[in-house]
UniProtKB/TrEMBL annotation:
Pfam families: Ras. This is Rab6. Belongs to the small GTPase superfamily. Rab family. It comes from Deinandra increscens subsp. villosa. Keywords: ER-Golgi transport, Golgi apparatus, GTP-binding, Lipoprotein, Membrane, Methylation, Nucleotide-binding, Prenylation, Protein transport, Transport. Protein transport. Regulator of membrane traffic from the Golgi apparatus towards the endoplasmic reticulum (ER). One of its GO terms (biological process) is vesicle-mediated transport. The keyword GTP-binding applies.
Length: 206
């Protein structure tokens, strides 16, 4: 059984407005690096990585979608067979947060309730430019019945815990313990928000 579990593959589609950091989150997870130059994703990019969770391995297939309007018609077909939809917004861009409701609705239209949806507030390193509070975003996540995590692809904050949390929530993972609490910053506690992240330099469009 362990060998069969190790072969499990799950499709994660990354959604969200342009320049919120979808590619940067994936790049930080895949290669543990951050590219300071911004290049918009054209169409769809695909990457794959095995993540190890307790006693088993899971193959995550990461589909990075373009945020530009001209590519929107491509996205429903990628949502259709996904296990997880990761909807990313920029905590320093309120409009990108407001648009997450549309992205969630689009996922629900294609997949109903047969999908894990994760709301991700990226760029928490932009402390002085924040336009969306943790409390407001957490409230929206609860309203829509989705998971919520804040990250900083630039600082590497909460990236690995995000994917561990996703992997633990996948079908067939019920017997595996969830992400260790000491590794995941609790978004419900102000005291644990990363307002003191070591990398708080100016933002980028990534």
């Amino acid at each position: 059984m362990a060998a069969l579990s190790a072969l499990a593959k799950h499709k994660l589609v990354f959604l969200g407005d342009q320049s919120v950091g979808k590619t940067s989150v994936i790049t930080r997870f895949m290669y543990d690096k951050f590219d300071t130059t911004y290049q918009a994703t054209i169409g769809i990019d695909f990457l794959s990585k095995t993540i190890y969770l307790e006693d088993r391995a899971v193959r995550l297939q990461l589909w990075d979608t373009a945020g530009q309007e001209r590519f929107r018609s491509l996205i429903p077909s990628y949502i259709r067979d996904s296990s997880v939809a990761v909807i990313v917004y920029d905590v320093a861009n309120r409009e990108s947060f407001l648009n997450t409701s549309k992205w969630i609705a689009e996922v629900r239209a294609e997949r109903g309730s047969d999908v894990i949806i994760v709301l991700v507030g990226n760029k928490t390193d932009l402390v002085d430019k924040r336009e969306v509070s943790i409390e407001e975003a957490d409230g929206r996540a609860r309203e829509h019945g989705v998971m919520f995590v804040e990250t900083s692809a630039k600082a590497g904050f909460n990236i690995k815990p995000l994917f561990s949390k996703i992997a633990a929530a996948l079908p067939g993972m019920e017997t595996v313990s969830t992400t260790k609490q000491e590794d995941m910053v609790d978004v419900n506690l102000k005291a644990t928000s990363n307002t003191n992240q070591s990398d708080q330099r100016g933002g980028c469009a990534c």
